[in-house]
Design a protein that fits this description.
CATH architecture of the largest domain: Beta Barrel
Number of strands: 12
CATH topology of the largest domain: L,D-transpeptidase catalytic domain-like
Strand order of the largest sheet: 3-2-1-10-5-6-7-9
Largest sheet: 8 strands, mixed
Helix content: 10-25%
Oligomer: single chain
CATH class of the largest domain: Mainly Beta
Number of domains: 2
Structural class: alpha/beta
Radius of gyration: 16 Å
CATH superfamily of the largest domain: L,D-transpeptidase catalytic domain-like
Distance between the termini: 44 Å
Length: 173
């Protein structure tokens, strides 16, 4: 059973996976992500299945994601030298000892947000990590950017549903 508020944030450009419990960052892990020809899809997803010892190049653990159009997941690796690089076919690879540490803390249904450089190329300047108590209106005022631009750039279906650790892209000014 997952603890309340568990969610993951993957930053493909920084090659990092952040594990949050509610408002608190539990741990950050280095990861490998998709290569330019097969990038890791950005967006908001959920864990849909978990497998112990999936075999082969998937290392010791697999957590499947509900990304349309493919079989993507967060998994271990038989090639630890790949961690920190953009080399996969779109999956998120972790050191086996890291995925083994994370695996029991993540349940099916856990939210996973994947952000990366591809989003920044579409009119973003910098990014901001949402802090506990932040609202989108406060972020817009703090950075002197239009609220509408924040909503559009980040594809926020519900701008009131921010969570700590969420990465908000800021428009170029």
């Amino acid at each position: 059973m997952k603890p309340a508020g568990t969610h993951l944030l993957v930053e493909t450009d920084l090659r990092r996976l952040h594990h949050f419990q509610g408002d608190s960052l539990v741990k950050t892990y280095p990861v490998a992500v998709g290569k330019p020809s097969t990038p890791t899809p950005t967006g908001n997803y959920r864990i849909v299945n978990k497998i112990v010892n999936p075999g082969g190049m998937l290392g010791t653990r697999w957590m499947g994601l509900d990304i349309p159009g493919g079989n993507y997941g967060i998994h271990g690796t038989s090639d630890p030298s790949s961690i920190g690089r953009a080399v996969s076919n779109g999956c998120i690879r972790m050191f086996n000892h890291h995925i083994e540490e994370l695996f029991p803390q993540v349940a099916i249904g856990t939210p996973v947000r994947i952000v990366g450089g591809g989003e920044k190329a579409a009119g973003a300047g910098t990014s901001y990590v949402v802090q506990p108590g932040d609202t989108l209106w406060q972020i817009a005022r703090r950075f002197q950017v239009p609220l509408d631009a924040l909503i559009e750039l980040n594809g926020l279906p519900d701008p009131d549903a921010l969570y700590p650790g969420q990465v908000i892209l800021l428009p170029k000014v």
